[in-house]
Design brief:
- The complex is a heterodimer of chains A (225) and B (178).
- Chain A is an alpha+beta fold and 225 residues long.
- Chain A has five helices and eight strands; from the N terminus they run H-H-H-H-H-E-E-E-E-E-E-E-E.
- Chain A has a domain of 85 residues: Immunoglobulin-like, CATH 2.60.40.10.
- In chain A, a hairpin with a 5-residue loop joins strand 7 and strand 8.
- About 18% of the residues of chain A have low confidence.
- The termini of chain B are far apart.
- Chain B contains nine helices and no strands.
- About 6% of the residues of chain B have low confidence.
- Chain B has a domain of 91 residues: RNA polymerase sigma factor, region 2, helix turn helix motif (Rna Polymerase Sigma Factor, Chain: A, Orthogonal Bundle), CATH 1.10.1740.
- Classes of the chains: A alpha+beta (225), B mainly alpha (178).
- At the A-B interface, helix 1, helix 2 and helix 3 of A face helix 2, helix 3, helix 5, helix 6 and helix 7 of B.
């Protein structure tokens, strides 16, 4: 952009560009015979004239009036807060002064980890117990070749947990000994399809759009369902 | 202090830094308002209000953009609103602009007469040019803005700005020779 501070005012209040006398239009010509192009040559007399066109000098009262005006402007609090928040700021850091802060943060982190309830991080692990309880899983299902029970008690592995078919009523069943606790489980049909127990007392979403049955064994009233 | 530094300083609460921007751009904004209204009194008021509006909106100014096209857009919109409210058309300017052609030029008398004729003719044609073409031409050849900056100031695409400048200059040329 042209430097607006280059030329000073003239006595008639009009600026005279300093190069005005150095570049003159052709004698009584406005360059009308020159073909128009998107980017016009700076040698075009018309362009030269536009470069030299005198401009009015801004009145001396403008600057004081603007400054007085903006000093009286009281922006709403949210605009001031937004302006403050958007303004880049420099932050000076003395590394040695960060040591106490880092130490305090470390202590807080250690304490938080120590007191963090463990059952939140491992919600489906059954509590350790020496006494086991008998559990019978049954499923009424015909027209399939195999059914296994899988769940949090066997890390969702079907091996060793295949259910036996009762030929008379086409039901599948298995007896297990499990420690008291809370378990999620489902049935694996033909080694591929997982279905929820239609007889389960409770259900919980598995996070993938399916539901698992929930089994609570023993006197675990405090256990989350 | 460049524009970005001045803006950052203003935004930190140092209001006086805004004077840097006013001093730098008061002339083109004042001239814009004078071209739009034809009145020096209105031009002074509108230029003042334009700068105050810019101050109020300064926190919305995007870092990395150029300040002058942004300011020019505010000024153009403000002048249009003023004319709409006053139900005025952009006014041809008064005698002040013609004073510029009565200055003493070096050279022969014939040259001087030709120059005066040329200047009067071009200046009148320029002021008769529709506002959108006139501002595009002046931003390009008087303020020497890039096409990108003209596009930003006039809220056009770059190709639209090129076309506006090209057509404006073409119309100006045809108006002069008619």
């Amino acid at each position: 952009m042209k430097d607006h501070n280059v030329s000073g005012p003239t006595t008639d209040g009009l600026e005279t560009p300093k190069e005005r006398d150095g570049v003159r239009m052709d004698r009584c010509s406005t360059g009308q015979n020159k073909p128009a192009e998107p980017e016009v040559s700076s040698a075009d007399p018309l362009v030269q004239w536009l470069h030299q066109m005198p401009q009015l000098e801004a009145p001396g009262a403008l600057l004081p009036a603007v400054m007085q005006g903006i000093r009286s402007v009281r922006l709403p609090w949210w605009r001031r807060a937004l302006r403050w928040a958007r303004t880049p700021r420099s932050v000076t850091v003395v590394p040695l002064r960060l040591v106490p802060t880092a130490a305090a943060l470390l202590i807080v982190a250690v304490v938080a980890l120590h007191w963090w309830p463990q059952d939140r991080s491992r919600p489906f692990v059954a509590p350790e117990s020496s006494s086991k309880l008998p559990v019978a899983f049954t499923l009424q299902l015909s027209g399939v070749h195999s059914v296994a029970v899988i769940g949090s008690f066997n890390e969702w592995h079907p091996n060793g947990y295949e259910m036996h078919q009762n030929g008379q009523n086409q039901s599948w069943s298995i007896q297990l000994q499990l420690p008291p606790g809370r378990y999620e489980y489902a049935f694996l049909v033909d080694g591929q399809k997982v279905i929820a127990d239609p007889q389960a007392p409770f259900y919980q979403d598995d996070g993938f759009g399916n539901q698992n049955g929930v089994l609570i064994l023993g006197n675990h009233h405090e256990t989350r369902i | 202090m460049d524009d970005q530094q001045a803006i950052s300083t203003v935004l930190t609460g140092e209001v006086n830094a805004f004077a840097v921007l006013v001093e730098r751009y008061q002339k083109p904004i004042y001239n814009l308002m004078y071209r739009m209204t034809g009145s020096q009194a209105d031009a002074l008021d509108l230029a003042q209000e334009t700068f105050i509006k810019a101050y109020e909106k300064l926190d919305r100014f995007k870092t990395g953009k150029k300040f002058f096209p942004w300011l020019y857009t505010i000024g153009l919109n403000h002048a249009r609103n003023f004319l709409r409210r006053a139900q005025l058309e952009p006014s041809p300017v008064g005698e002040d602009w013609e004073e510029g052609v009565h200055q003493n030029y070096h050279g022969e008398e014939e040259d001087r007469l030709c120059q005066q004729l040329d200047h009067q003719r071009v200046q009148r044609a320029l002021l008769e040019l529709p506002m959108e073409y006139r501002e595009a031409v002046l931003l390009r050849y008087q303020e020497e803005l890039s096409m990108e900056d003209i596009a930003a100031a006039l809220q056009l695409s770059v190709s639209g700005a090129k076309m506006r400048v090209h057509r404006g200059l073409d119309r100006l040329r045809r108006m002069i020779v008619r």
